[in-house]
Write a structure and sequence with these properties.
disordered C terminus; single chain; Rossmann fold; alpha/beta; binds FE2/S2 (inorganic) cluster
């Protein structure tokens, strides 16, 4: 074994987590105060609601070197802003399809509903995504790979014109 091989560090994924202030972020706090041990690969960004998650945030994280992204929000029906998490889910589903079309594995980007009392679920989810991304290896993106996705996300949704009395 050469010196180079023996000193090479194993791959440690970088994961960016966007956590809703009211539930998942609080659950992460709970996991911390309860001294639950989980993988140290996640960097948490607190957002007020999962509905605040602009898909561009996910693209920016991946573009800037994250190997995976985790989004945590309140359970359906529990969002403090009524429907933020439903909106987040719709956007996230579309984003995952676009990322898949670029060959980005679906395990790299995950959304999970985690209530404030579910510290243990934070630990499990972080450990699972870290292990999944570690198995996949580093995300190797062409510098311009996400430009097409970014463009399609910034275009307005197509409109459908319906004449009076006509149904879709
Ligand atoms: S307030 Fe938590 S997802 Fe909306």
């Amino acid at each position: 074994m050469s010196d180079n091989e023996s000193t090479r560090k194993p791959f440690e994924p970088k994961i960016v987590a966007f956590f809703c202030n009211w539930c998942t972020y609080t659950a992460a706090d709970l996991a911390g105060t309860a001294r639950m041990k989980y993988q140290p690969n996640v960097r948490v960004v607190r957002i007020m609601c999962s509905g605040r998650l602009d898909p561009q945030f996910v693209l920016a994280a991946l573009r800037e070197g994250a190997d995976g992204v985790l989004v945590g929000g309140c359970h359906p029906g529990d969002c403090h802003y009524q429907e933020g998490n439903y909106k987040a889910l719709r956007r996230f589903t579309l984003l995952k399809k676009l990322l898949a079309s670029l060959g980005i594995e679906s395990e790299r980007v995950r959304m999970e509903w985690i209530a404030a009392s579910e510290g243990d679920k934070v630990r499990t989810t972080i450990n699972e995504i870290t292990e999944a991304v570690r198995r996949l290896g580093p995300l190797r993106l062409e510098p311009r790979a996400l430009e097409g996705v970014k463009k399609s996300l910034s275009e307005p949704a197509p409109t459908v014109e319906v004449a009076q009395g006509e149904s879709i």
